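Can you give me the bound-state structure? Components:
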Amino acid sequence: MIKEYVDDSLKYIKRNKKSFLLILIFSFLFLLLFLDIIFIKNFHGYFDYAINKNIGFRTFTVYIEKTPIESINEIKEIKNVTEVYGANYKSFSAKTDLNINNLDGSIDLLYGTQNITPKSLVGKSIEEVKSGEMICPIDFYPDSSIGSLKIDENRIVKPEQSLNQEFKVFYLQSIRKIVDNKVVEEEKELIKKFKIVGLYDSTLVMNFNNQCYITPNDMIELQDSLNPPMDDTHPFSFLHVVVDKEENVEKTMRILQELGYMVDTETNATIDKEVVTTLTILSNTFFVLIIGAILLILRNYLNKKIKSEAKYMGILRACGYNKKQVILRELMGNLTLLLISIIISLFFVSIIFLILEKSLLIFLTYIGFKVTNHKGLLFILALIVILISIIMQIFIIRKSLEKTISNILKEE
Amino acid sequence: MNNKLIELKYLKKNYETINEKIEVLKNINYVFEKGKLYAIKGHSGSGKTTLIKILGLMDNPSSGEYYLFDKSITNLKDKEASLYRMKHIGFIFQDYNLNPYLKASENIIVPMIINKEINKTDRNKIANKLLKEFGLEERANHFPKELSGGEQQRIAIARALANDPDIIIADEPTGNLDAENEKIIFKFLKNLAYKGKCVIVVSHSEEILEYADISLILENGILTEGQR
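Here's the bound-state model for the whole set.
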């Protein structure tokens, strides 16, 4: 019987131009609703992902007055602190003679220790790495364009090409000379040979595909070469403190402040909370407005349709349809229209999502974030709207059914 | 041979307002038989619509008994009443009330959808047979707006006959038709009575008296047989 009701509904939709318009409107509204949901979920998902993966969200800077050794030892004793190192040794941008796949050989060297370096997928792990060795991303892309995440997939250096690759890193040395009783600084280019001995998954820590880990001593050598410390016992005044989890950052900062350290309360990586809040409010408001619009249009449509069909419902009752059968017949008619709209909008969501994923948002995959269309959530949302519409319809039809017989019989 | 189809015993219907109790049908005792066309006449407010509603199981009497095939069906619940309507009663109204988005044959099929005894193939066969009977076989694929008033009413009658009911109740069936079409419709109804149906027609038209086997007058809630 339900099949017949659906068949009649499809005939109604096919033969009534207004139904087409309504399907168009509903499809558009559902499309907006679904895209908004996808945006909200991915937007928040991205921040959660970044906070969990990007070490910058749990790294902050402290100013030290004691000697670095004393401070590092003291800070390392604090619970939840996983690593402490001189702030100037965080990273080193280097030019190399790596000219694989027509890439310009720009790499970013990072301070590598067991506590802050991800496990290697291939080759040596950081604890096995010696001076002159480094661990690079498995999808290695040594090029200066990496900052804008414009990656040409065909030029990504494959593991068999990168592992055991030997190359030169060029760096500068600052030399102070006294000429005519004046201190003159000169720069001299030095070369250090490196070999890639391990490969890691850069997406695990949201690193760029040209960021390689070297030993702390190599990092100190490269950095101090250009900016030699003025004071050997106190070579630097700032430390980077890495905490195990983002939620422990504030607590650790407080402990350090209590110990007398000057703490920069902003972590190395931050999120503009104002922008996040504004976008969240906007997208949530949009969501509520669209839901409201869908339900309002649906209610008006149902009211009009059921009012115009009141006499016909009376005929159905006279033909022997019981109240439940009339409700079911009407319900199927309207649900068919709603379902067609939802299917059309889901189809367009898939197309739009595919375009976004393959073109505009592809860069996110290089930092390991997978944009998802949250299909399950969309189905649940569609189901909720359908359920609300069913309740609404039953209420409106029942109200109208009370009068159906009077509608067809001329009351005396 | 027992031709008794409907028997109304001491049937009453009252409507209560805040201030008064209106007795619309007063102690009606009547037997409607198969194969007869009954014409019910009465002034406005005489209780015709109320009587039709009760006869068509769309309302319950305040008191008294309604027997169909000698079985009391007074005060049935909606589901049972609907089932009886589907099997035994066909309605024809002044307004044809065809579904404008369904073709003529599809409109006739609508009552059969809920009849489990008729399968899909038979539905189409029955619809085509009825269309032929009413001289509308060539209009099967036409929408109501493409049909004349008389043709629409004939489709509405065919729809009322779809489940082969024993009783046909027609409320002012020719109210919207011209004299020529009125005659055609009354002839059809007469023919139905000839085929053994019990046809009850409420009409203001004097023309119906020419076709009716029994003329009934409903006056102040009292049903009496009048003169033909």
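A couple of observations. Chain A is about 50% helix and 20% strand. The two ends of chain A are 36 Å apart (CA to CA).
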